[in-house]
Amino acid sequence: MVGAVSSPSAAALLPLVVEAGEIARAHFRNVVAERKADRTLVTAADRAVETFLVERLAALLPGVRILGEEFGAVGAATAPRTVTIDPIDGTAAFVAGLPTWCVTIGWLRNGVPEGGITHLPITGETYVAAGGRASWNGRAIPKGARAVAEGDRFVVTYSGYRRGEAAAFPGKVRALGSTAYHMALVARGAAFGALLGRPHVWDVTAGAALLAAVGGTLCYGSGEAVDLAALLGGERSAEQMVAASPGALDDLLAMAGGTR
Questions:
Q1: Is residue 102 scored above 70 in pLDDT?
Q2: Any idea what the CATH number is for the domain that residue 26 is in?
Q3: Model-level pTM?
Q4: Rounded CA separation 200/136 (Å)
Q5: In this structure, how many other beta carbons lie within 10 angstroms of the beta carbon of residue 129?
């Protein structure tokens, strides 16, 4: 086992996330879904992955608060650092047998994202943000605006988004089922931007670190900056969030109905 460290390290945490992904993969396409009180789906795989990660993270990072989607918080609310866990982001895709779900963890200091890992076991994609840098499968993601690739430009969005609001967008609108993956695609430059609905902090911490590392933006649909410290109690965001690739924010805010 990796030795104890005083603060989160992507090198130390990545093997745990990959191992957690294999736990989820063992359940994939062989699950029974349940409905939680908020009507979202949960499976035995969600619980198994979070249990594994909480136990390993608590041993690896003594004194760090851990906040997971399924079982809540472990550790003191006053701890300066919090590690967030979404054991399976995209549970509906997981239940449907689609490959666009991921295991994602992120870490914050005093509510400010420092890093995160988003791992898709089925597609073999891993996104890491740490030390102000971002990578995709070990390759650095450059900072700043990138030329639009050949083909149709697209945005990704949550399933409840009304297609009519995006009618003016000169490209495709896609919903792949995972907020964390949507944000990773924006940071990578594959997606122009993402409309995220009203996520929880565990959905967006890793993505926020990725976006910061490449010069992208996470904000509310009104254009106001997102304060993740306000969501560390585990509540859902009160407003829709937008993830914009460098240079794309104004167009995304127009789609979200906001102004800047």
A1: yes
A2: 3.30.540.10
A3: 0.91
A4: 24
A5: 30
